[in-house]
Amino acid sequence: MMVGNISSSVDEYKALFVEETSFYNRIFLGSILPPILWENLPHFFQTWLRNYIGGSLLYLGSGFLWCFVIYYWKRNLYIPKDCIPSKKAMILQICVAMKAMPWYTLLPTFSEHVIEMGWTRCFPRISDVGVPTYLGYILIYLLIVEFGIYWAHRELHDIKPLYKYLHAIHHIYNKQNTLSPFAGLAFHPLDGIIQAIPHFLALFLVPIHFTTHITLIFIEGLWTANIHDCIHGKVWPVMGAGYHTIHHTTYRHNYGHYTLLMDWIFGTLRDPTLDDDDFEFNKSKKVC
After folding, report:
1. In a domain, 106, yes or no
2. What is the distance between the alpha carbons of residues 217 and 211, in angstroms, rounded to a whole number?
3. What whole-number distance in Å separates Cα of residue 232 and Cα of residue 239?
4. Model confidence pLDDT, tens digit, residues 143-181
5. What pLDDT is stored for residue 8 in this prediction?
6. In a domain, 112, yes or no
7. Which end of the chain lies in a sparser environment, N or C, as judged by fewer CB atoms within 10 Å?
8. How far is CA 57 from the centre of its chain?
9. Average pLDDT, integer, range 85-114
């Protein structure tokens, strides 16, 4: 009888994840699509469709808004005129990203599936652990992600076939006047997935709140736009666009993601305020 009760409790606990995912699917898909297009799909494909449409809207919406502000509305305030990328370059970046988007969004969909199966250390409610513990888990989770993305990114450069056939597609944007917020997701699909895998692996290493995990995945889309806009914000210890622009011009520095920590630890950090012939920064902290 005790075994049966434990099994029932586990099933009920796992059902909370399915219930939450189904709620997100109904709210999001139901607000933009007629029921006939999604209600009869299996749960996994409903989740993928929600992630695909949501990811596409986030990428396109944030990208167009970002570009409108820095290239047109506030033209020459953040980016000098000769650093603004051409429309052709931005359209190419959009095409590359949108071709990869169906594949990108398979990873968060699969991660939600394994969470629903109870195979990870996810928990459904913050109240399950309390706020202080929840915040501590987020910190550990982000450190794992930071470490994993640093090494995934670095190996995409160091392992020649990976660079040649995957990562080089992203590095055709190797000048400041070819980089834009749209370049943030302009990767070969497998390249983008490799760099996102640390989010997935972290689910098995540290307890993390389910909705927080999903949110952090989609924040990646905003963050990658930010670090490709060539505006050097200089907020220590953030790995902002100034540092990432150096990565696109030297190829051997600043592999990190959110912070400077891993590049500092492993000796690949390069400060954008240095006076160097490879890149110049004007006195108003603009990359040009």
Report:
1. yes
2. 10
3. 10
4. 999 999 999 999 999 999 999 999 999 998 877 778 899
5. 55
6. yes
7. N
8. 14
9. 95
